[in-house]
Amino acid sequence: MPVKELVQMKTGEGAPVFLIHPIEGHVDPLSVVAEQLSSPVFGLQCCKDAPMDSMEVLAAHYIKVLEGSCYSVSVIEWSLRTHG
Fold this sequence. Notes:
This protein is α/β, with parallel strands linked by helices. Helix content is 23%, strand content 20%.
């Protein structure tokens, strides 16, 4: 399980982009995406202290983490969710 919630994945120019972890909880699988962007890239990871009550609670937690980052925020989320 990741130790840090917010990690810098890549330096760059312009407004930063924040990538949200896939189901594994860490942003390692998203390094290929980060490398394709010219912006600085940060990853949000799911640490042991993350609230897992619901997606809404986890999203609210991540919003608080991002608000503390001192950046305007663009978020990219990756989901394998299927629709029936």
